[in-house]
């Protein structure tokens, strides 16, 4: 279960945080040209053999650690321990401003940006800034035109998972509460009615 130590040592390049200075020092090597261990599949570099070994599991899809409650599998035991918080409903990381609680320290750190308004992730193409790295990644998909999220029913593709999730509603026999007052066509979402 989570280590409640404060992560006070932050990487000035990628903002990853560590509880000990030694962890940050080891991490900083991943940003330097001193990273000598290369993955022979994707060419990502590592400074430690252990890190490369764990990384290789992402290519083999080997997940030897299983949750006894839901049977979900994980590549590393620490991921399983983190997952177990879902089943215990334990949320030890609490926002000191709004008292919202989180299972993971990184989720609390991300949440804090909603209070500060800080947007440290900036798109190099359009200069739009974001509070979260994932939002920047989604923005980059829009610029590149890559649409990795594909509907398994009609093969329509989307740049963002939330758009695919929204699209999937069109394939279900769901309630369609949003009705056009002109032609009486109905929609599952208000946004589709507005576009119509």
Which features does this protein show?
alpha+beta; two-stranded antiparallel ribbon; 196 residues
Concise summary:
The chain is of the alpha+beta class. It contains seven helices and 14 strands. It has helices spanning 21-28, 49-60, 77-88, 105-116, 133-144, 161-168, 190-195; strands at 9-10, 17-18, 37-38, 45-46, 65-66, 73-74, 93-94, 101-102, 121-122, 129-130, 149-150, 157-158, 178-179, 186-187.
Low-confidence stretches: none
How many runs of DSSP E, i.e. beta strands? 14
Order of strands side by side in the largest beta sheet?
1-2
Query: What string, H for helix and E for strand, traces the elements in order?
Result: EEHEEHEEHEEHEEHEEHEEH
Number of H/I helices: 7
Arithmetic mean of pLDDT? 83
Q: Beta fraction of the residues?
A: 5-15%
Shape: globular
Q: Strand count, sense and closure of the main sheet?
A: 2 strands, antiparallel
**Helical amount among residues, as a percent range?**
25-40%
End-to-end Cα distance: 49 Å
Query: What structural class results from the helix and strand content?
Result: alpha+beta
Radius of gyration: 21 Å
């Amino acid at each position: 279960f989570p280590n409640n130590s404060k992560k006070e040592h932050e990487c000035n390049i990628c903002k990853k945080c560590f509880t000990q200075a030694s962890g940050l020092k080891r991490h900083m090597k991943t940003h330097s040209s001193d990273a000598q261990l290369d993955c022979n599949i994707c060419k990502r570099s590592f400074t430690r053999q252990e890190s490369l070994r764990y990384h290789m599991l992402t290519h083999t899809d080997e997940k030897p650690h299983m949750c006894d409650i839901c049977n979900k599998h994980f590549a590393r035991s620490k991921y399983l321990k983190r997952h177990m918080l879902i089943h215990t409903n334990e949320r030890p990381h609490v926002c000191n401003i709004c008292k919202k609680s989180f299972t993971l320290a990184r989720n609390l750190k991300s949440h804090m940006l909603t209070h500060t308004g800080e947007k440290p992730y900036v798109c190099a193409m359009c200069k739009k800034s974001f509070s979260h790295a994932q939002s920047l990644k989604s923005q980059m998909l829009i610029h590149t035109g890559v649409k990795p999220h594909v509907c398994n029913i009609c093969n329509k593709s989307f740049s963002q998972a939330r758009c695919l999730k929204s699209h999937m509603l069109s394939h279900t026999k769901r309630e369609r509460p949003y009705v056009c007052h002109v032609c009486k066509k109905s929609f599952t979402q208000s946004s589709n009615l507005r576009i119509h």
